[in-house]
Amino acid sequence: MKRTLPAALAAEDRPPSRWGWLAVAVWLVYLAQPLSEIWQTQHGITRLLGLLNLAAFGVSYVGFFGILRWQEFRPSASPLWQRLGYLAVMLGLALLLTLTAGETALTCMVYIAATAVLSLSLRLGVLVVLLLLGGVELSMRVVPGWSDDSSYGFAIFLGGVAVLAMRRAIQRGSELDRARKDMAELAVQEERNRFARDLHDILGHSLTVITVKAELAGRLIQVNPEKAAAEVADVESLARAALGDVRAAVAGYRELSLAGELVSARTALQAAEIKADLPTTMDEVPEENRELFAWVIREGVTNVIRHSGAKRCTIKLSARQIEVRDDGKGPGGSTSGHGLMGLRERADQVGAAVQVGQSPEGGFRLAVKVGP
């Protein structure tokens, strides 16, 4: 059977985008409220100091997020005192801002709460959010001239919950990336060992026979030239056969294996925490259909992991048809991607039909049928 490197090896490590900080900086738009308050109520040097204070807070927020992103949002990546110290600096800037922006400076507490949830352990992050929430609610009621409508406290609560969910998503993504890297490294090692064994099996016997026949030809060249010539001809034939075997072994890496893709699909789905309902045998699938069906599995499972949000993926095999379906969010606009276009081209080459649409479970269904 032809073999291939698992699909996980096709993925490349992508460095973080250099423009990722924009996704953080865009939320600074909510500082427009204290900015407007400073501009309208302050004048001269007081206005300038207030604006510089606000700018320093924005820079500290974006800067801290940049550090966290560089550390892959791992709370253990730096000492606790450093992270608490940075949060204290942000809190100090926010409190100082109340002198020029009044109660609108409490908007900064939402940024501090979000940063605390991402930078600290889960328990400590929640504690910081509760302390900020309590402090804001108390100050809104005891500081003269400040309203007590609880809007800032509600914003802190919503921001903490949203960032907590984002933190969990980041952790899940990191865990999945690490699992894929580990699988890829293990697959590379396994393929190296397997290929070494294959080469040993292919060449070991042939080279041994070639060596024996070459030695025999050397001894016969003076005694029986005709017999020596026959042995040399055998050596040439064996060498050509061994070269052909090596080429065939190497060529096996250029095509997909149905068995290999089923194994890779199960591993990838498990890493993505998607229940895999896969066939346990492929004996009924003819050899001429197996490579196409392997491409269907690769494309279908890739789409399930990337786009579906599914909890279960099912693959069904028969002699002339393969079906990949899930219980995710359905096809949506994902029925004409580059992967499906390439799959249709492969199917057209062998007279097969590609079907895409909604699965019985409500998710996405990809099926390929060979023949009428």
From TrEMBL:
Ranges that cross the membrane: 48-68, 80-101, 108-132, 152-170
Keywords tagged on the record: Kinase, Membrane, Transferase, Transmembrane, Transmembrane helix, Two-component regulatory system
Signal peptide extent: none
Domain Signal transduction histidine kinase subgroup 3 dimerisation and phosphoacceptor, chain residue ranges per copy: 191-255
Keyword Kinase listed: yes
CDD domains found in the cross-reference section: HATPase_UhpB-NarQ-NarX-like
The protein's name in its UniProt record: Sensor histidine kinase
Organism (species): Kribbella yunnanensis
